[in-house]
Amino acid sequence: MTPSHGKYGLRGRAAIVTGATRGIGRAVARALADAGAHVCVSARDPDDVRRTAAELDGVGLAGSVVDPGHAEELTGLCLREFGRLDVLVNNAATNRPYGPLMDADPALWREAFAVNVEAPLRLVQCAWRGWMREHGGTVVNICTEGAAHTGPGVGAYGTSKAALLHLTQQLAGELGPGVRVNSVSPGLVRTEMARFVWEPGERETAAGLPLARIGEPEDVARAVLWLASDAAEWITGADLLVDGGTRVRRARVPP
Ligand SMILES: NC(=O)c1ccc[n+]([C@@H]2O[C@H](COP(=O)([O-])OP(=O)(O)OC[C@H]3O[C@@H](n4cnc5c(N)ncnc54)[C@H](OP(=O)(O)O)[C@@H]3O)[C@@H](O)[C@H]2O)c1
């Protein structure tokens, strides 16, 4: 990212990014910071949060998004430090429980919904009450390309992300015109969460994609940055696929 991202109109604004210490969330926080925004990051590991906040010249709070107090503390921190809260990126997620739904532990199933659906809603509520209702703002929820179809072992993840997609649209309807709410749905991206998928099969997956490679966190970050910016001022309730052509791969003629 370069200082030319000042063109996005984010200079001086404040952004919260959850799950921002590695992978996609970290790339998003970096892109927002490079675009001139003040960033407030969160994740569970306190050392990682401290390091990331320092690297981005921002602030951070360690904790889990499922903790009911975390959303209030995080939005409170952002408002206290920066005096505003313009952008909220709900990125933290879990892909557990992994496996057939007939074996799914009810407690872990609920945890998936607590992390992937309930926590984003709670954060939007806090952002709305603390700042966005009065001053406006924008929310980007990180969903997944996989939410549109089924797959082995990913029932809890896919179902909860499909719920997040619907939540995005519902909130977009409820919170306009002041607040825009959109989602970005990544395909397979080179991160820790997806390592078990890309590490054993990267070449094969890449060969099947129209754009011939798996995603990098920065591919997703650029899409989030754009949706969060004024360049997307007439876009709400949308889902932006960033998947290298995963949805259209069946039309690919092998080289
Ligand atoms: N990678 C892919 O291929 C892919 C594809 C589609 C969608 N996505 C979505 O992209 C988003 C980011 O995934 P990623 O692949 O970048 O994951 P990742 O590399 O595993 O990073 C996850 C981040 O979230 C934090 N986190 C995890 N659970 C948390 C919790 N309960 N509370 C607060 N922070 C938490 C982690 O830090 P701590 O462990 O310290 O908490 C870390 O900073 C997720 O929403 C995921 O569903 C990813």
Keywords:
255 residues, alpha/beta, seven-stranded parallel beta sheet, 7 helices, 7 strands, 45% helix, globular, binds NADP nicotinamide-adenine-dinucleotide phosphate, NAD(P)-bd_dom_sf, 3-ketoacyl-ACP reductase, SDR_fam
Verbal overview:
InterPro entries: NAD(P)-bd_dom_sf, SDR_fam. The model has no long low-confidence stretch (mean pLDDT 96). By secondary structure, the chain is of the alpha/beta class. The protein is globular, with a radius of gyration of 18 Å. It has helices at residues 23-34, 46-55, 68-82, 106-135, 155-175, 195-208, 217-228, and strands at 14-18, 38-43, 59-62, 87-90, 137-142, 179-186, 239-242. The protein binds NADP nicotinamide-adenine-dinucleotide phosphate. NADP nicotinamide-adenine-dinucleotide phosphate (NAP) is lined by residues 18-25, 42-45, 48, 64-66, 91-94, 115, 142, 144, 186, 188-189, 191-194.
Fold blueprint:
Layout: E1 14-18, H1 23-34, E2 38-43, H2 46-55, E3 59-62, H3 68-82, E4 87-90, H4 106-135, E5 137-142, H5 155-175, E6 179-186, H6 195-208, H7 217-228, E7 239-242
Parallel strand pairs: 1-2, 1-4, 2-3, 4-5, 5-6, 6-7
Helix pairs in contact: 1-7, 3-4, 4-5
